[in-house]
Amino acid sequence: MLVVWSNRSTGPEGSFVRDEATRALRRGAYMPVCIDPVEPPLGFGETQALPLIGWKGNRNDPRYVAVLAAVQAVLAGRERPAPPVQLPRRGIDRRLLIGGGTAAVAAAGAGGWWWMRGTDAGDNRMAVLPFANLSGDPAQAYLGDGMAEEVRTALSRIPGFQIVSRLSSETVRDLDAGAAAARLDVSDILAGSIRRSADVVRVTAQLINGRTGVERWSESYDRQNQDVLSVQSDIATRVATALRNSLAPAQLAAVANVGTTNVKAHDLVLRANELGRNQDGEAVSRKVRGLLDAALALDPDYAEALAAKAGAMANIATFYTTAEKQPAAMNAAIAVARRAIALNPDLPSAYRVLGFLLKNQLRFTDALTAYRRANALGGDAGALIGYSFFLAEIGHARDALAKANQAVALDPLNASAISAQGNAYYLGGDYEAAITALRRMLRAAPERFYARYYIGLSLMWLGRTDAALAEFQAMPADDMFRNVGEAVLAARRGDRATSDAELQEALKVADDQAIVIGAVHAQRGERDKAMAIIETVLARRSPDIPAIKADPLFAPLRSLPRFQQILTQLNLP
Prior knowledge:
single chain; alpha/beta; six-stranded mixed beta sheet; three-stranded parallel beta sheet; 25 helices; 8% strand; globular
């Protein structure tokens, strides 16, 4: 019996489904699948639900194939095969970009985590899986995810510990400890559960050796809700001690620091972080800011809340603010980030947001200083990804690739980390490596079709124009970057009529003064038009402009004094 767990079937309307699922359990015929990102109701989680989230009916889709294989195995009396791990998000996360990445939504992706699989996991490398929500209320899921993230952050403060970042840890949340450790190439797994009632929170945690399956440490906590902050710091301390035997007093203090003593403020920050990770749009960004303002009303000196608020303000200023109001909005966000740093000079997230904001103001030297500080403080994968994109954009491709590789090591299943590798290869001029990496990424995430744009450009630079055209034509017919790619390729092949037609198609979507249109003119030999657009973009103080230094599309302009003058004016570090 296939039982489909969804937002409705796990909610008040799902009593009939739960009744049928109970009968299936009794008969030993229960086969659960999920079509929405939900936890099965209490009592139905022993059998792992196979993910069908986003499935569109394709019988070759790995998600469908996994369900079919599981059914066939059960009917044949065999053990169910382990389901394939699914990347929960595709594309570059806009919220991640606020953490310091480039604003180019078409940034390339690349293969990357496979190279790690043959290595031996170091004893200092571990993953913290999301704590299972046992409350029976899907709305409480943020608490388990938030507690896991807080424990990751605390452990990452200890020198020598390498903690796999959030997205990869969430991707393997339904695997057993051994399978999760193998997938992430870690030595230890921390798993747990959380159940919260009106007055009491019950937390269990278990540290397991991923190679042997032997439990290193476990504990159960029954605390009043106001004591929940002490639970997560205690878990981090116990885990660190179990793995390291002893900690210096300064390390113990760093692990125990949760940023606030106000439980309600902490809960509001967890809610804001969960909302910001899982939804997008102006209304969501403003709701996130509202939650953070409420937290700060309870604890004005909560540095982590201030850093998160600066990120929400940066998101609103970058994507949802008119050009004339944008400078003031950016300055207000910078002030909040600096306030967070003043309260906690060792807070990587505040420096990451500050770097992004300064970069958008074209204050590149100051932005580089902020990114370097975030990285020096042991920044997570998000900080490294943003730093990598920034370095590649200002012309430091080798350093950008090093940071991207570090991000993949910390978050091996994070598509944005893999994208940073491809971006560094492409802007560094290693087109063969970029093609190889991008094709690997497409095999894992075929819907990230923007990778085809960079594959096409890379093939074009290598002189393989027919293959380049095939890549562009594999993109959606109405996509602007397909039109840009075909316009450039046709111009280089001497087909002016096709180039004109594709440029006009691109202009139906793009501003005629957009930097990407300037790139088309540069490749068509229309250098004056290209330079006029670049000068307009500079006058607008657009954060896209530093890419002109590294992007090969602008190579025909580099000998022009006007172009060199702009690079001098940008003062790129």
